[in-house]
Design goal:
single chain; alpha/beta; 24 strands
Length: 963
C-alpha cells in the first residue's frame, strides 16, 4: 500500500515542504514544535491571528482544546518580553491553571492572584480571577505596565446575571495595545459577540469550531442496562449538525423527524404510559389501606402525581458496577444536591464497592495523608475527613461547593490521574474545572433553582455532558441519562441534540463602576463609554428588527380597519366601548385582591411581640404567638411560634383577611427561640391564655366585615354607564355586528402588540446611559458626586473612597462607614460586621434576627440596617435594582472563628458546610483587605482590618493546596 506522500506529484510535495519550512519560521510553528500533538485547524487559525497582531474570539466545545490558544498568547508574551494575564471566572480554575502553567514555564515565571491569595504577583505570567483584573484597571495598578496579552477563559460568563458585567468592564477598559484572546463555549451568536469585540477592541477574528475532538454517544440507563438513545450506528455528534438548530420551540415530533430515537425506548415509554393510565382509571374498588398508601406516595413524589414504571430501578452501587463491567469508568455522575452527592458515596461504601487496586490505594492514601498534614487534627472529624478518605481509597468521591477547597483539589488531582474512578458532583463542577471523564451520568433532568424544581436547559445539558470523552485517552465519550418514571425519550433526544445557546449581556452600571468611570474620564465621556457595552450593542441591533415588525403590523392594521367598517356608524368607537367594558369588569376583581392584600399587609405590620393570633389555613394553621415584628411595608413576614413549637414566618399567603390579636402574652427578656424548653414554656402560656378565654380562640372577623369592595363603587357606576352607552350606539343594531367585532378584536390585539413593540424600541434606545444617569442621581444625592459652578461633575472625598470598594453592597458599605457603623468595634466585631456585607443566606435559612455577640456590634448592625433601609427607598424612587438586605446569619460563626474557637464549635447549630464557611471567610477577608486599602481611611480602622484578617486567616482557612 502506497504512503500518502507517494500519491502527490513532485510539485505538490515540493509545495507542501515549502509550506512546512515557512511554518517552522513563524512563532506559531515554533510553538507547535513544543507540543506533543498537531494543532487542529481552529487552533492554528486562532494562533496565526494572534501572531498577526489581531484579537481572537474562539468558540469551541468543552474539551476541544481552546486553552492552547491562550497558552500561545502566553508564549508570544514571553518571547516578546511582555506580560500576560490569564483570567478565569472561579478560584478553583485559577488554581488549576496556575499549577499547569507553573509546570510548563517554571514556577518562578507564573503568579496567582485571587482575592485572598497572592503568589508571585510580579511574574511575567499571572493567573487571576476576572474581578482582580477589573480592580487593577480601576486602580491604575503598576502591574499593568508592559502588559501585552490577556486571555479571558470562559468568557461566556459575561452572561452571568450576578458577575457578568465584570467581563465587559475589563474588555472595555483594557489598554488598546493589549491583545485579547477570548475563549468561549459554543454560543449561537459568536459572530455578534465578535462584531462587538471588533468595535471596542479593534481587529478581532472570530473562530468557531463545533467539532468535538472525541465523538459522544448518548445513552439511557434502563435498570442495569445501558441502552442507546438513538437508533443509528453513528455517534450523535456526526448526525446533529444537519438541519436547523434545535431550540426551546422544537417539539417531540420535530425530534422524531430529525433523529431516529431508539424504538425500544419509545415502546418502553408507551408501556409506562398505559400502565399509569390503567392504574389511574381502571383500578375499580380499592381498600382504604391501599388508597392511604397511594396518597402517601403521592405526597412524597415531587410532581405530586403517582408515577409507576415497568422498569425496576437499579441502586447507585449497581449502576456503578454495571458501568465498570462495560468499561465506562472513570465517570462523573451529576446529582443536583450536595447532600445527595455525599449520600451516594456513603451508599457505595456501604455496598463494599471497590474500584481501585492495592497499589492505587497506597498512592491515594499517601496523597490524602500528605494533604491533611496542614489541617489541624481537631478539625478532621468535623470536616468528615475519615469518611472522605475511605471513599477515596475505594476510588469514589463527592465534589461540591460545600466541601473544603483542599478536599476538592485532592479529588480533582486524583481523578485527573485516574486514581479516583467515580465522582458524584453538583453542576458547579461543569463550570470550568478541567475534569474530563469517559462517561457522564445524569441522574435526573431537573434541578432545584432556589425557588422550584425546573427542567435543565439544552445549554446546561450540553455543558454537563461536554465532560465526556478524554482527548488523547478515550476513543469515544458517553453520556448516560438514568431512566426515571415519566421519562420521554424524544424529550431527552431533544436535549441531547448538539446545540448552542445565545450569549446575552447582563451588563448594568453599578455605583463603583460609575464613580470610577467619572473619576477617570468625566461624566460625559463615561456615559459614552457605557454606551459601547455589549448590552447596548445587542439592544441597538434588536431595534432594527423591531422597527421592521412595527412597519409590517401598521400595514395589517390598515387592512383590519377597512374590514370592520360599519354602514351604521363608527365601529372603532363601538369596539372601544366593548373593550373598555371588558377591561373594567376584569380589573374589578384585581383591584379587590390588591386592596385585600394591602389591608392584610397593614395588619401584619401592626403585630407586636407577644400578640397571639389565629392563622386560618396553610402549613402554619392554628394559634401562634408573635416573636418578632416586621415593619417591612412591602412584604411583612413577622416571626411566630406555632402551637407545635415550630418557628415560622407568616405572610399574606397564610391569611384570607386582616389578622387581629386575640390577646397578648408576656415574652421574657431571657427567652431564647433556639431553646426547645423556652419554646415549650411559651406555647404552654398561650394555651393557658386560650383556656381563660374560650370564646376568643377563633375570634376573627368574617371576611364580609372587611369592606374589600368599598373602593369599587366608582367602578360599578362606570360599568353601568358603559353598558348603557353600548346599547345606545348605532352599531349595536347592526346585523353584522359580531362579524365586525371579530375584525375589531383582531385590530385591538394587533394594535396592542404594535404599541408594545414601539415601547420596546423606546426602552432599548440608550437604556444603559439612562441607568447610568439614575445611578449618578443617587451618588449626587449622597454627595459622592459634586457639581461645580461651571457644571462640571467631579467626585468628592467620599467618592474617592467608594472607588476602592467592590461588591454588590459597595454603596451600603461606604455609607455605613460614613455614619459610624465601624467606629466602636474591635477587630473581632469588625470581622463579624464585615460578614453582614458579603454573606448571602439561602432562602430557607433566613429567620429571625439573632442577638449580637456584643452591644457595640448590635449598635453597628443597627446603623447598617438603617442605612440599607434608606438606600432602598432612594433606589426605589430612582427605579434602580435594590441593594440586597444585610444578612446576619454569619455573624456568630465569624465572631467565634475570629476569637480562635475550634471549627466544630464554630459550625455547631448552623446549617453551614465546612467548605461554605471557608469560602465565606475568604470573602470577608477580601472585603477587609479592600477596606484597609481605601484612600484616606481612618488609621484605627486600617489597623483593625489588618488585625481582623490575621485573626481569620488560620487553620483550614489559611491552608491552601496551591500555596
Amino acid at each position: 500500500m502506497s504512503s500518502p506522500s507517494e500519491t502527490f506529484s513532485p510539485s505538490q510535495r515540493y509545495e507542501a515542504a515549502a509550506k512546512r519550512q515557512e511554518m517552522a519560521r513563524t512563532k506559531v510553528g515554533q510553538f507547535a514544535s513544543t507540543l506533543e500533538f498537531a494543532l487542529d485547524d481552529f487552533q492554528l487559525k486562532a494562533c496565526q491571528s494572534l501572531e498577526a497582531g489581531r484579537g481572537v474570539l474562539v468558540a469551541a466545545p468543552t474539551g476541544a482544546g481552546k486553552t492552547i490558544v491562550g497558552e500561545f498568547a502566553i508564549y508570544l508574551a514571553l518571547e516578546r518580553g511582555l506580560k500576560a494575564f490569564y483570567t478565569t471566572p472561579i478560584k478553583a480554575l485559577s488554581n488549576q491553571k496556575f499549577t499547569e502553567l507553573g509546570a510548563k514555564y517554571g514556577i518562578e515565571n507564573v503568579g496567582l492572584l485571587t482575592g485572598d491569595t497572592n503568589i508571585n504577583s510580579d511574574a511575567p505570567v499571572v493567573v487571576m480571577t476576572t474581578e482582580v483584573l477589573r480592580n487593577m484597571l480601576y486602580a491604575g495598578s503598576e502591574a499593568l505596565d508592559d502588559l501585552g496579552y490577556v486571555v479571558m477563559d470562559e468568557v461566556h460568563y459575561l452572561a452571568d446575571r450576578f458577575r457578568g458585567a465584570v467581563w465587559e468592564e475589563v474588555i472595555i477598559h483594557l489598554p488598546t495595545e493589549v491583545q485579547l484572546a477570548s475563549l468561549s463555549a459554543t454560543v449561537s451568536n459568536a459572530e455578534e459577540f465578535g462584531a462587538w469585540l471588533d468595535t471596542v477592541r479593534g481587529d478581532t477574528d472570530v473562530i468557531v469550531s463545533e467539532t468535538r475532538p472525541v465523538p459522544l454517544w448518548q445513552h439511557v440507563m434502563v435498570g442495569k442496562e445501558v441502552v442507546d438513545l438513538f437508533g443509528t450506528d453513528t455517534p450523535f455528534d456526526e448526525v446533529a449538525p444537519t438541519g436547523p438548530a434545535i431550540d426551546s420551540k422544537t417539539t417531540s415530533e420535530d425530534v422524531k423527524d430529525r433523529f431516529v430515537v431508539n424504538p425500544e425506548l419509545l415502546k418502553m415509554a408507551r408501556n409506562e404510559t398505559q400502565m399509569n393510565h390503567r392504574g389511574r382509571f381502571g383500578h375499580g374498588g380499592r381498600s382504604r389501606r391501599q388508597q392511604d398508601r397511594q396518597n402517601r406516595y403521592k405526597q412524597s413524589n415531587i410532581s405530586g402525581q403517582e408515577q409507576r414504571s415497568p422498569v425496576r430501578r437499579a441502586t447507585r452501587p449497581q449502576i456503578v458496577a454495571s458501568l465498570d463491567r462495560q468499561n465506562l469508568l472513570p465517570a462523573i455522575s451529576f446529582i443536583f444536591s450536595r447532600a445527595a452527592c455525599d449520600a451516594a458515596v456513603e451508599q457505595c461504601v456501604a455496598a463494599n464497592l471497590w474500584l481501585t487496586t492495592e497499589r492505587e490505594q497506597q498512592i491515594i492514601a499517601s496523597r490524602v495523608d500528605e494533604a491533611a498534614q496542614e489541617i489541624p487534627s481537631d478539625d478532621l472529624d468535623v470536616l468528615g475527613f475519615w469518611g472522605w478518605r475511605e471513599g477515596l481509597l475505594r476510588g469514589i468521591a463527592a465534589h461540591h461547593a460545600g466541601m473544603l477547597p483542599t478536599f476538592k483539589e485532592v479529588v480533582e488531582k486524583l481523578f485527573a490521574d485516574n486514581l479516583v474512578k467515580l465522582v458524584y458532583a453538583t453542576e458547579t463542577l461543569a463550570l470550568g474545572v478541567n475534569m474530563p471523564a469517559r462517561t457522564v451520568i445524569l441522574e435526573k433532568l431537573e434541578k432545584y433553582n432556589g425557588e422550584a424544581h425546573v427542567n435543565i436547559t439544552a445549554g446546561e445539558y450540553t455543558q454537563l455532558t461536554g465532560r465526556a470523552g478524554r482527548r488523547g485517552i478515550d476513543v469515544e465519550g458517553h453520556a448516560v441519562v438514568l431512566w426515571q418514571p415519566g421519562t420521554d425519550p424524544t424529550a431527552v433526544a431533544g436535549l441531547a441534540s448538539r446545540r448552542t445557546y445565545p450569549l446575552n449581556s447582563s451588563f448594568r452600571p453599578t455605583y463603583n463602576m460609575s464613580i470610577n468611570l467619572i473619576a477617570q474620564f468625566g461624566r460625559p465621556r463615561a456615559r459614552e463609554i457605557l454606551e459601547s457595552s455589549f448590552a447596548q450593542f445587542q439592544a441597538d441591533r434588536s431595534v432594527v428588527g423591531l422597527a421592521r415588525q412595527v412597519r409590517s403590523r401598521e400595514e395589517s392594521l390598515a387592512g383590519y380597519e377597512k374590514s370592520m367598517t360599519c354602514h351604521l356608524g363608527d365601529f372603532s368607537e363601538y369596539s372601544k366601548l366593548r373593550r373598555d367594558l371588558s377591561d373594567l369588569e376584569n380589573g374589578a376583581s384585581k383591584v379587590n385582591n390588591r386592596m385585600k392584600k394591602s389591608l392584610i399587609d397593614d395588619s401584619l405590620t401592626r403585630l407586636m411581640p407577644g400578640d397571639v393570633i389565629d392563622i386560618p389555613h396553610g402549613k402554619n394553621a392554628g394559634v401562634a404567638v408573635v416573636l418578632n415584628a416586621d415593619f417591612n411595608a412591602r412584604e411583612p413576614r413577622p416571626a411566630v411560634l406555632t402551637a407545635d413549637h415550630q418557628l415560622r414566618r407568616i405572610g399574606f399567603q397564610d391569611l384570607d383577611a386582616p389578622v387581629t390579636p386575640i390577646f397578648t402574652v408576656r415574652i421574657s427578656k431571657s427567652f431564647n427561640a433556639k431553646s426547645p424548653k423556652d419554646r415549650r414554656d411559651l406555647a404552654s402560656a398561650v394555651r393557658n391564655g386560650l383556656r381563660e378565654r374560650p370564646d376568643q380562640e377563633k375570634r376573627r372577623k368574617p371576611r364580609s366585615q372587611y369592606a374589600f369592595a368599598d373602593g369599587l363603587a366608582d367602578t360599578e357606576q362606570k360599568i353601568v354607564a358603559l353598558r348603557k352607552q353600548l346599547r345606545q350606539h348605532p352599531c349595536h343594531a347592526c346585523a353584522e355586528r359580531e362579524d365586525h367585532a371579530r375584525w375589531a378584536e383582531r385590530w385591538w390585539k394587533l394594535r396592542r402588540e404594535t404599541d408594545t413593540l414601539v415601547r420596546q424600541i423606546q426602552g432599548r434606545t440608550n437604556t444603559i446611559a439612562r441607568t447610568f444617569d439614575r445611578v449618578c442621581d443617587v451618588l449626587t444625592r449622597y454627595e459622592y458626586l459634586v457639581t461645580d459652578d461651571a457644571g462640571k461633575v467631579t467626585i468628592s472625598a467620599e467618592g474617592a473612597s467608594l472607588r476602592r470598594i467592590y461588591g454588590e453592597k459597595d454603596l451600603l458599605i461606604s455609607q455605613s462607614i460614613r455614619h459610624g457603623a465601624f467606629d466602636d468595634v474591635d477587630a473581632h466585631e469588625l470581622a463579624a460586621l464585615a460578614s453582614v456585607m458579603v454573606y448571602q443566606a439561602k432562602r430557607e435559612e433566613r429567620g429571625m434576627r439573632p442577638k449580637m455577640p456584643s452591644v457595640s456590634l448590635e449598635s453597628a448592625v443597627d446603623v447598617v440596617v438603617r442605612e440599607w433601609s434608606m438606600l432602598e427607598d432612594v433606589e426605589e424612587r430612582n427605579k434602580l435594582p435594590l441593594t440586597s438586605e444585610p444578612e446576619l446569619g454569619l455573624v456568630w460563626p465569624i465572631f467565634k472563628w475570629s476569637k480562635g474557637r475550634h471549627l466544630l464549635e464554630v459550625l455547631k447549630g448552623t446549617e453551614l458546610a465546612a467548605g461554605d464557611f471557608v469560602r465565606w471567610v475568604k470573602q470577608v477577608i477580601d472585603l477587609l483587605d479592600q477596606l484597609a486599602k481605601v484612600p484616606g481611611i481612618d488609621d484605627r480602622l486600617h489597623r483593625l482590618c489588618k488585625e481582623a484578617i490575621r485573626n481569620l486567616r488560620r487553620g483550614v482557612v489559611a491552608y491552601s493546596a496551591v500555596a
